[in-house]
Amino acid sequence: MCRLAPAPPPLVVQAGDLFPLQRPSLQVHLQLRRLLRRHGQQPRRLRMVLRVRPRHAASLRHHLLRPPHRPQRGRATHHRLHRYVRASLLISGRQATRESTSSGDDYMFFVGAAENLGLPYVPPTLVHNGSFRRGANFAVGAATALDTGFFHERDIPGGSSKFPLNTSLGVQLEWFESMKPTLCRTPRECKNFFGRSLFLVGEFGVNDYHFSFQRKTVQEVRSFIPDVVATISMAIERLIKHGARSLVVPGVIPSGCSPPILTKFAGAPPTAYDSKTGCLTAHNELGLYHNLLLQAALAKLRTKHRNIKIIYADFFGPIMEMVESPHKFGFEEDVLMVCCGGPGRYGMNSTVPCGDAAATTCRDPSARLYWDGVHLTEAANRHVADVWLGEINPSTGVSRKQGAKGPCRLGRHKI
What is the pLDDT of residues 209-266, one digit of tens each? Predict the structure, then answer.
């Protein structure tokens, strides 16, 4: 059980996570959604300097890029990387190869909540050259909870032999620890600083599972869900030791409704699908299992650290709500069809991904749930943000549904 004591400043959802208004926040991970201007989504102006802070450049480059890319981060070498990596190096539809400032076309999950509350965006650590005392975002696209060595040992695509980036949760924690001396100096100062911050841990797990589905069965992937949850718990414990007192930990999405997964398993028998939603039942059950284990792990952490606020945030429920009742949210009937992509049942095509010159886009992205299959549209992201905001009473910081002594969770899905 988690007790949320009333607090003068309101709690605010940013990037699908919460942090107190006008208090420093440190974001451990968030998957960002990069959009190209020509693909029709409303642009959002985000000032981003494509440069790593000089004092951290060497250490960040060492963790981020393996040879032969490591000494060449400032050059146009990323075209040789895996396509998932190329996506993570795209900012505002431009290649991140120059030390320059660009206007942003990105719509990230947290933008809706931040705009509603008049808050600044959390700056990404790898492209920001200013202060991080008001917040820091350590996210890298396609990051996993488990280190790449885990996937390499199990011969899973996405392992160290396949991915040139090592951006796991553990690596991101190391980046945070490297930044810590720039935020506070003495143990007392750090305790006060991080005690007034909200740490956003996740979501983690989706990439671990989706990469693994390329060669592993659902049952095989299910076998290492406890490892993923244990890694997340370890990260929370580590942050608490650094002085964190407020943390938000999201669950995973319903993978069985994800267009890439539906495309990958297009040959599944009719009995594998939910007759109402068209989603793959076994893959959704895997997500529910992850969320169940995660909530149990968070409950143990709350018992161990009774003075720490640990909030579970639900991604699964709001997305399923949109899948089950698309018209309620203004979406088209074929809710699993992506807006941006190539020819195929769900608009997914490995040879014509969103962003390719041959890719097509729908006329009205606001009428679709999925943008490119991997990411939601702005309209869908806003709904998830609204659900999370609606679960918190801004005047007290107490869950409207559960009350001060109820379980700390955001979202409506019940397991």
Answer: 998 998 899 999 999 999 999 999 999 999 999 999 999 899 999 999 999 999 999 9
> What pTM did the predictor assign?
0.71
- Smallest Cα–Cα separation from 210: which of 276, 257, 153? 257
Residue type, 384: V
Residue range 369-408, pLDDT digits in tens: 999 998 999 999 889 888 877 765 444 343 444 333 333 4
β-strands 17-20, 409-410: how paired?
unpaired
pLDDT tens, position by position, 16-67:
232 222 333 333 333 333 334 444 444 443 333 333 333 343 343 344 333 3
Amino acid making up residue 38: R
Q: What is the 3-state secondary structure (H, E, C) of the chain?
A: CCCCCCCCCCEEEECCEEEECCCCEEEEECCCCCCCHHHCCCCCCCCEECCCCHHHHHHHHHHHCCCCCHHHCCCCCHHHCCHHHHHHCEECCEECCCCCEECCCCCCCCHHHHHHCCCCCCCECCCCCCCCCCCEECCCCCCCCCCHHHHHHCCCCCCCCCCCCCCCHHHHHHHHHHHHHHHCCCHHHHHHHHHCCEEEECCCCHHHHHHHCCCCCHHHHHCCHHHHHHHHHHHHHHHHHCCCCEEEEECCCCHHHCHHHHHHCCCCCHHHECCCCCCEHHHHHHHHHHHHHHHHHHHHHHHHCCCCEEEEECCHHHHHHHHHCHHHHCCCCCCCCCCEECCCCCCCCCCCCCCCCCCEECCCHHHCCECCCCCECHHHHHHHHHHHHHCEECCCCEECCCCCCCCCEECCCCC
User: Using N-to-C axis directions, what is the helix angle for 281-304 and 316-324, rounded to 10°?
Assistant: 150
58, two tokens:
């060497």
Each domain of the chain, given as residue ranges in start order, spans 11-323
**CA pair distance 192, 187, nearest whole angstrom:** 9
Task: Indicate the residue type of 111.
Answer: V
